Amino acid sequence: RAPRETIYKEILSHVQETDETYPYRRGAYEYYSRTIEGSSYKIRCRRKSGMNVEEVFLDENELAKGKSHCEVGDFDVSKSQAILAFTVDEFGYEEYSLRFKDLTTGRMLEDVIPKTSGKVVFGNDEKTVFYATMDEAHRTDKVWMHRIGTPVSSDILLYQEDDTVFDAGFEKSSSQKFLFFSSSSSETSEVWALKLEEDGKQLLSSISSNTVPKYCLRPRKKGILYEVDHHSRDFYITTNVDGATNFKLVKVDAEEAAAGKEDAKWQDVFPYDADVKINEVHCFNSFIAITGRQGGFSQIWTFDPSDPKSTKNILQFEEEAHTVDIGPNFDFGTTKLRLTYGSLVTPRRDYEYTPSTSSLQILKQQKVPLYDRSKYSSERIEIKSRDGTLIPVSLVYREDLIDKKKTNALHLYGYGSYEISIDPEFATTRLPLLDRGVIFAIAHVRGGGEMGRTWYESAKYSNKARTFTDFIDCANALINLKWTSSKQLSIEGRSAGGLLVGAVVNMAPRLFKAAVAGVPFVDVMNTMSDPSIPLTTGEWEEWGNPNMEQGYNDMLKYSPYDNIGAQDYPAMFVSSGLYDPRVAYWEPAKWVSKLRHFKTDNNPILLKMDLSAGHFSASDRYRYFWERSLEICFILDQLKCLK
Predict the structure, then answer these.
(1) What's the rounded Cα separation, in Å, for the pair 412 and 433?
(2) 317, 311 contact by CB (below 8 A)
(3) CB count, 10 Å around CB of 408?
């Protein structure tokens, strides 16, 4: 316990416990959140612009009293900003109750909607609210409209997705003029648009007379993906249509699309560039922003919609290896873009970018006590995999504590699924490793999205094993390049990254000294064979369907539980959450039991089951640090760096 307490206190020493976020503008108010030393949760606040009178609209510490878990999923305010809608999960099962608060009186309203997906959006008035619910398999399948003050039983079903491979979703356009309904799987999507009235009663009347102005922008077609935003006369769409694997930006006339004209063609805004991955489009009155990836890193572009080609500009930063994303932007008429930035050595920064002048202004630099950035360095190297593909690896270390003339302790992290990128971001919880001479590395293996959609698609289905061989090849190369040795190398992955860990310790068990597998998806065959298990059917487009011969044969080759053998395994720390809807607690439990039965060594295999959390560990920030400190202790102990 003493080493764990030391690590825990060390993590806390790098946390600015009393802090507040930089406010963002929303109508007449500025919104922000703050934390207080000793309090576990956020206090959400606002103040009228130009005034310094704080209004606490949601104190999550009060909300969490008497509960072992409390996670606010989403919140929105009505047009006048007098009514708050928010969702909260009290177990970690990612099942949220939707609640309402009158911000003029501070009184909670009687309306409570249980078992929602967690997302909530107001219409363009004080009464109309949109939300979604899930089926028994935890799949979002229905989108509803609620009128505050009316029974939930009278809520109107606006959209329903019956295909169990697809999830339903909804989003309000940046212009506030449309509500988009979506059905999406890993490989196919479809979007419907609903024009929002200023008064929800008009919308209610239209629905009652079966004349809902809802229309499909493009019927689903296998392999075609797209997402939509609205600007002026046009819908702007990111899509992979016409063979644009890494996506491109197109637009279509909104009125022609609404009329269902066959000649309402999607027009390229920019020519397709296979070296650039386009992710999302965010529309504003005087400019449009695009998020995506280029050169292995996240990027943001802006342009003037009246002259896209000559005004397109990529935001430039001082570090090549960085992470950047769009921040909170609720003012459609703004001339500035809020964004967040960071790197492996640079804590989070909030910026404001002005497209008309290409100027970037820093608003807030995250404070990290007792952190001297000058002591730390990061590198990006490329490692050749067994098929010749170059795999990026990011490294960060403390310069005065490693010796490049000899091998060092190294902790290698990986994920490699769902096109999710593990970007070079700063983490205070990583400092206890770096400050003891451990190098932290990220293997950006195929199956993730670091190098674009093609990177992801090259490691799916029958090619899924590339994710695991890439990771093994990275580990071997780091050893051959004298960064580390097998006795000084630990690895880690969470969720699908836990699958990665489970697969590679079967394939190359002597390559690693220790492994940490967080909420690991390790019983692939059994879970994917049972469509009644939450979130299973939608995963068939990720891993394959084991009820089909090809899918069965593919998964059986790497499924961690099914490939345990009588061999030596590294020391392992496995964690799970009782309420996890994504990876059921029995998966890591039975995996650990089988490993202990078959392994031929004396290395420990530890299982930690959190009885009051789900997939994302504790909601209480202090308890989260306490749980993470145990994993760090395990890593440091196995690498003989716990000092």
Answers:
(1) 12
(2) no
(3) 20
Q: Residue 68's closest CA among 576, 629, 534, 577?
A: 577
Q: Are strands 83-89 and 96-102 parallel, antiparallel or unpaired?
A: antiparallel
Residue from 326, 299, 304, 329 nearest 314 by CA: 299
What 3-state DSSP class applies to 522?
A: coil
- Is the pLDDT at 209 greater than 70? The verdict is no
Name which of 592, 571, 582, 589 is nearest 617 in CA terms. Answer: 582
Kindly tell me the sign of the dihedral angle through the C-alpha atoms of 117, 118, 122, 127.
positive
Q: Can you read off the two tokens belonging to residue 22?
A: 């930089």
DSSP 3-state of 31: strand
Per-residue model confidence as pLDDT tens digits over 579-624: 999 999 999 999 999 999 999 999 999 999 999 999 999 999 999 9
Do the Cβ atoms of 116 and 122 come closer than 8 Å?
A: no
Whole-number Cα distances in Å, 112 to 86, 116, 149, 438: 10, 10, 10, 49
Predicted local distance difference test score (pLDDT) of residue 438: 98
CA distances (Å), origin 488, targets 407, 561, 606, 637: 8, 26, 19, 11
Residue pLDDT, tens place only, 101-150: 999 999 999 999 999 999 999 999 999 999 999 999 999 999 999 999 99
d(CA 77, CA 63): 18
Q: What pTM does this model have?
A: 0.96
Q: How far apart are CA 47 and CA 174, in angstroms?
A: 23
What is the C-alpha to C-alpha distance for residues 452 and 446, in angstroms, rounded to an integer?
Answer: 10
Phi and psi dihedrals of 632, rounded to 5?
-65, -40
Mind giving me the DSSP string for 439-495?
Answer: EEEEE--BTBSTT-HHHHHTTSGGGTHHHHHHHHHHHHHHHHTTS--GGGEEEEEET
Question: Cβ(474)–Cβ(443) under 8 Å?
Answer: yes
Catalytic residues: 495, 580, 615
Look over the chain and give the mean of its residue pLDDT values, rounded to a whole number: 96
Alpha helix segments (H runs only) across 151-240: 200-208
Q: Which residue has the tokens 């911000």?
A: 103
For residue 296, with 0-12 CB atoms within 10 Å meaning exposed, 13-18 middle and 19 or more buried, which class applies? buried
Cβ density class 363-396: b for 16+ within 10 Å, e for less:
beebebeebeeeebebebbebebeeebebbbbbb
Distance of alpha carbon 80 from alpha carbon 70, whole angstroms: 28
26-67 tens-digit pLDDT:
999 999 999 999 999 999 999 999 899 999 999 999 999 999
Q: What separation in angstroms does the CA of 75 have from each of 96, 131, 179?
A: 12, 11, 17
Token pair for residue 611? 């009885």
Interatomic CA distance for residues 166 and 520, integer angstroms: 24
Q: How far apart are CA 472 and CA 451, in angstroms?
A: 19
Contact criterion met (CB below 8 Å) for 276 and 293:
yes
Closest Cα to residue 73, out of 140, 126, 26?
140
Residue 512 near residue 409 (C-beta atoms within 8 A): no
CA distance 283 to 274: 23
Query: Of all residues in the chain, what percent carry a pLDDT higher than 90?
Result: 94
Model confidence at 212, in pLDDT bands (50, 70, 90)? low
Kindly report the backbone phi and psi dihedral angles of residue 440, in degrees, each rounded to the nearest multiple of 5, phi listed first. -105, 130
- By DSSP bridging, strand 410-414 and strand 489-494 are parallel
* Contact indicator for 385, 470 with CB cutoff of 8 Å: yes
